[in-house]
Specification:
This protein has about 325 residues and is mainly beta. About 15% of the residues lie in helices and about 40% in strands. The strands form seven sheets. The chain has a five-stranded mixed beta sheet, with no helix packed on it. Strands 1-27-26-25 form a four-stranded antiparallel beta sheet, with no helix packed on it.
C-alpha cells in the first residue's frame, strides 16, 4: 500500500511539473495585436511616443504622420509636403511613386525631442520638424555637403545635446527605386547631423551601404547605425579618442531595419531573413546580442519588417508594406 501511495505521489508531482512547464511555455509565447492604419495606406516604418505616452505616431504611405488614439484608431497629426492636398493624396502610394512622394510626402523615420517637437525624415523631401500640435511641418534640411538628400530614412535626437542625427540612404537612388540600390550594392549612403541651435548641417560618415536607422547612446558618446543593403550594425563614436570614426559591430544582419534605444540603454532592431521570415534583436552598445527572437503572428504574411521599439510592456513593430502597426506583448 505504501508503494502505491508513493508511486501515486511521484506521478502527481511529475504531472504537476509537466503542467507547470506547459503553462510556462504557453505564457512565454508572444501575444500579437494589430493597430490598423487608415484605409488604403500602409508602411508604418518607424514609430514614436510623446512624453505623455500618446501614440504610437507613425508615417504612412500617403504622406501623413498619424497618431493612434484608443477607441478612435489612427488620426491625422502632421504632414511634410507643402503642396499636400488631402483629396488627391489620401490613399495614394508614395512609397512606390516618387512623383506622388514629392507632392504628398513620404515620412519614414520619426523622433521626438525633449520639448515634444517631432523630427521627421521624409524620404523624398528631407528633414522636417513639427510642433506638439502637429499640422504643417517645417523643412530644416534638403541638402548636405553640397549634395541633395535623396533618400532620408532614419532619425534620432540626442536628449542631452538636442542634436539631431539622421541618415541619407543613398545619393543615387530614391525610395521608389530602392530595389535597384539593393541589386547594385549601393554604397553612397551618409550619416548626417543637424544642430537646431545654429542650423548647421554636417556629414559625419560616407560610403554607407543603405544607411537606415540611427540611435544615440544614453550618454551621447556614440550612436549606432544600421545598413539595410550591407546588412551591418555600425558604431560611430561621437566623443573620446575614437571620435568621428566607425566600427562594425555586427555583420550578416539581412535587411537591417531601424534601430531604437530602449529605456535601459540597450538597442533593438529587426532583420528580414527572407520574405515572410523575420527576427527581432536586442543588443548592447558593443554589439553583443542579448536576445534574438522570431517575429510571427501577422508578420508571417509581411514581406519586410523595418524595426521594433519597446515602449512600456509592449514592442511595436514597423514595416514598409504592412497595413498596421504590430503591438506585441512578451516579445523579448
Amino acid at each position: 500500500m505504501a508503494v502505491v501511495t508513493s508511486l501515486r505521489s511521484a506521478m502527481i508531482i511529475a504531472i504537476s511539473a509537466l503542467l507547470l512547464f506547459a503553462k510556462a511555455s504557453v505564457t512565454a509565447q508572444p501575444i500579437y495585436t494589430t493597430l490598423s492604419l487608415p484605409p488604403g495606406t500602409d508602411g508604418p516604418e518607424s514609430v514614436a511616443f510623446d512624453f505623455r505616452g500618446g501614440g504610437p505616431y507613425t508615417g504612412i504611405s500617403d504622406g501623413r504622420i498619424v497618431k493612434y488614439v484608443p477607441l478612435l484608431g489612427f488620426i491625422d497629426f502632421a504632414f511634410t509636403a507643402q503642396s499636400r492636398n488631402k483629396t488627391f493624396c489620401d490613399g495614394k502610394n508614395a512609397t512606390a511613386n516618387a512623383t506622388v512622394g514629392t507632392i504628398c510626402g513620404r515620412p519614414l523615420g520619426i523622433a521626438f525631442n525633449n520639448t515634444q517637437f517631432l523630427f521627421i525624415c521624409d524620404a523624398y523631401l528631407g528633414l522636417y520638424v513639427v510642433g506638439p500640435l502637429g499640422g504643417q511641418a517645417t523643412r530644416l534640411v534638403s541638402s548636405a555637403g553640397g549634395a541633395a538628400i535623396r533618400f532620408c530614412n532614419g532619425v534620432d535626437v540626442d536628449s542631452n545635446t538636442g542634436l539631431v542625427y539622421f541618415t541619407d540612404s543613398s545619393s543615387r537612388y530614391l525610395l521608389s527605386n530602392g530595389s535597384q540600390a539593393i541589386l547594385n550594392g549601393d554604397r553612397t549612403g551618409r550619416l548626417l547631423s543637424f544642430n537646431p541651435g545654429t542650423g548647421q548641417v554636417a556629414v559625419l560618415a560616407r560610403r554607407l551601404s543603405g544607411a537606415s536607422g540611427v540611435a544615440v547612446a544614453n550618454d551621447s558618446s556614440y550612436l549606432l547605425i544600421t545598413e539595410f543593403i550591407g546588412g551591418t550594425v555600425k558604431k560611430f563614436f561621437l566623443t573620446g579618442p575614437r571620435a568621428n570614426t566607425t566600427q562594425t559591430l555586427l555583420n550578416n544582419v539581412p535587411v537591417a531595419g531601424h534601430i531604437k534605444r530602449t529605456p535601459t540603454g540597450e538597442f533593438t532592431l529587426t532583420e528580414t531573413v527572407r520574405a515572410f521570415t523575420h527576427r527581432a534583436l536586442r543588443i548592447n552598445g558593443n554589439g553583443m546580442v542579448l536576445a534574438n527572437v522570431s517575429l510571427g503572428g501577422p508578420y508571417n504574411n509581411v514581406t519586410v519588417v523595418t524595426g521594433v521599439q519597446i515602449y512600456g510592456a509592449f514592442a511595436y513593430v514597423g514595416s514598409l508594406f504592412a497595413g498596421f502597426v504590430g503591438k506585441v506583448f512578451g516579445l523579448f
